[in-house]
Amino acid sequence: MPDAWQTLAVDAVTLNNATAREPADARAADELLTSTVFRDIAAGRAGERVGALERHLTEPQPAGRDLFLLFAYHPDTVLRDVVPQIRVESTWAVTVCLYEAWWRLAATGRLSTVEPRGQQAAAGYLARTRWLLYTWPFHAGPGDSGLTAEDLIALDGSRATLVTRARQAREDWLTVLDTVEDHSLLLADITPENDIRRLLSHPINVPALNAPRAPAVGDPVDKAVWRHTVRLHLLPRFAVGAAWQLAWRLTGGLGRGALVTAALAFLTALTLLGLGLGRHWPHDTAWMLTIATLAAGVGYTAVTVAGISERAASWPWLLRQPASAMLGVVALLALQPDWWQASQPRTAVIAAGILVALATGYLTIEAGNHGVSRGWPLLRRVTAVAGLGAIHAVLISTIALRWLAPALSEGGADMTCLWSPHGCPAPTLPPGPVFALAAAWCFAAGVFSQILWDDQPYTAPLAHLGWRKGR
Question: Fewer CB within 10 Å, N- or C-terminus of the chain?
């Protein structure tokens, strides 16, 4: 009869394509389970189990290879059919030690019955199951995990030891996820983003183990893992919503206040611009343009304050977009001085639409190449990222037209008629198409300038250096 934790954890460890592989044969574990040596190890001192299991599992056994494949590729069968036959007080602790031993042996290539490439491929699978088992108490908690308080100290006599080992298992699995495309078999058997979200769902520390239902509060180690995961896994997959949740969790009171201020300031700026256009701006609503640019400036200042408070707080704002949109501003100021006078409103609107469509198509292809599922997830995420990029483009281009173009571009002083009470003489474009075309130009420049970013995704944080191997 399976223990409660085994029944609950089976779904978590089950691989996506388990039915596509050769069916598992739990009888491969019969020799191990009936071995006097194994039973002595399982019932022995907790701190000595892993080393003893490593030695025992490297000994020649008739079903050695099949036993290894069972544990590596059929963890659900192991929990459902093998573990219930282990007669010890804490089957969870023994199962964790078994996967710890198998992972160590495979990661170091010490199994004589399995060829090196087979061990290397299986090590990723074993790292995943090992991580899920070690962190099971943190995700579900003693009350919902099926584990008892005694289970939590059964590994080596203390909860601190469990935390240390669970963190190491998390780090090892995160290393696999960082290079998951090097593991083609594993990539077909898991949904990386599901594991990423599970990894982010709870901190791994002693307070979290003692009170798993309390709000997720991480210590410096947890926060470093969360930042890394947001930067390397969520943002490249355009998961801006999840990145916002993590940024809020990581940010303290000052940073949260700054984030709210930034959101309100940007909303104010967009509202004023919309009202101005709706009331046939410029005329008597020209003042709205000036106030809108000032509100945008307050917003970017607040984002800066939030980023100083907690660096991850600025990441979901996708600050590479406004930074690269300034490249569009530079090109805009260098264009023919009368570009804003040289076309018809319909032509300007069509040109703006083409620029937005091309940039959005680029983002769609990039999101798909980064593993975002087709259909609604792809549409939702591209819309969110493109929408945020468009907001930045509108704000940056408006600031540029209002304050930079009159001072820096040839003939820029004539552009002030766009927001003067008297308006511009015919046949000048109305202000709406001019500002829309400038915003679309900056949006497209921000997207396509990504090719200059040294293989960084469009959603990458505003940074160029990382102190991690291979990143």
Answer: N
